[in-house]
Amino acid sequence: MIKTVKGCKDIYGEDIEYFRKAEKVMRDTARAFGFREIIPPVIEYSELFQRSVGKDTDIVEKEMYTFTDKGGRSITLRPEMTASVARAYVEHHFETLPSPVKLFYIGPCFRYERPQKGRYREFYQFGVEVLGDESPLLDAEVISLAYRISEKSGIKGLKVRLNSIGCKKCRPHYKEVLREALKPHYEELCDDCKRRFYTNPLRILDCKREKKELKESLPKITDYLCEECKSHFEKVQNYLKLMDIPFELDNSLVRGLDYYTKTVFEVVSEDLGAQNALLGGGRYDYLIEELGGRHTPGLGFAIGMERFVEVLKAQSKIIEKETSIYIAYQDSTLKAALDIASNLRDKGFTVLVDSKGGSFGKQLSRSGKRNSDFTVIVGEDELKKGTVQLKDMRKKEQKEVKVEKIIEELMSNES
Question: Into how many domains does the chain fold?
Answer without folding.
Answer: 2
